[in-house]
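Reopening this one. Same input as before:
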Amino acid sequence: MKKLACLLSVLLIATYSALATPANAAPSDDPYSTLLSLRERARLYDEILSKRVTQLLPELMQRTQIDMWILISREYNEDPVIKTLLPANWLQRARRTTILVITREGDNKIGTYAIAPYKVGDLFERAWDKAIQPDQWQALSDFIARHDPKQIAVNQSEIWAHADGITLTEHRKLMDALPKKYQKRVVSAEPLAVGWLETRIPEEVSLLKSMVAVAHAIIAEGFSEKVVTPGVTTTDDIVWWFREKVASLKLDTWFHPSVSIQRSDAKAFDHESSFTAGYGEQTVIPGDLLHVDFGITYMGLNTDTQQHAYVLKPGERQPPEYLINALSKANQLQDIFTSNFVAGRTGNEVLAMSLTQAKAQGLQPTIYTHPLGLHGHAAGTTLGMWDKQGGVPGDGDYPLHLNTAYSIELNNAIDIEAWDKSIRIMLEEDAFFDNSGVWYFNGRQRALHVIPSQSTFSHRF
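Same output, byte for byte:
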């Protein structure tokens, strides 16, 4: 009978693990097999960059009616946008003073030039001969005069840090080099810079699908008995396991992961601490509800995921019904929220609609979703912040555009009578917004990851 009970336990836990796996990822799939060698990554990175420049940039310059876009960076103080235009073997670093100039040359045609001391890959034509004009800034001024643009856009923005990359020194040098008539034509490149950063092309969508599958696989492994031994393993142990796992796959993290615990005790939920491991290091014990916030970086793109796991108590075969229901309510909030995505609606409009609808359905929602892509917290439409549920001035007023990616980040509070307190189910899943609506790159968590207690598997050997 003990052997039969053990077998049933294993089967039930396997069933719950399968439910926690995204629906479109077969259990036999190996997401890690999609990761390329460093050399192959560089090749693909440059191919995608070339398509973004030649296919996407002409459309964006036409949309924003910007004639000339100038990006200027000095080594070790790179503009966030110029990093996304440099070839793979530059490792997103400028060399000395690197100046890129992109010009609109008719409908859906652009010119790409580098006024730089070194050749900038194959996408940018070298437009400075130091032997003829030793002064780089005068060479830039002469180039501008030859093209005579109506607008000269530089990366200045009060709203998005990503689009505010020109430094005070570089701006002063540019203005000093320009004749007065061109000084008056200098404008902010904000709409172009944000459009460039937020828009994904099909090749990037395919890449994000495989990246999110990898992120999900890492979380599933980290929230398993392979990593967690109740009564022994601490939250910091799990955090550093995530860091080591990412490093072993030759990936990067764009933020330090956090693992937090909600359990049946007197401690109230603290929103800020839940994201910063502010509760301090805790030992995982049976009955705990674990939460992870985790993101990876691969070939210039980023993921951002939050999921939950439950640690079975001795004798339990599945999470308590109240926690299963709590996750279902959070999934309900996701559905309400993503159904309100419409191109042209602002983030603040979608936020207000979603909160109103969720509360009418008896939920206790908090929504704080952000764009995702070339940065983790990326440029584009912000849809709430955890401490700004009345709307976010600036980037919350920016309208949604198609072909953009988001971390669907939110939580729903729910009263747990058995714990005599309210808990939060905090979810974050990466998704894409296109003509079909919002869809998840690799599904979303619909069931808790399950970690067995020591006693559950006491007879497995």
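So the earlier flakiness isn't reproducible anymore. For the record, Residues 8 and 341 are 43 Å apart (CA to CA).
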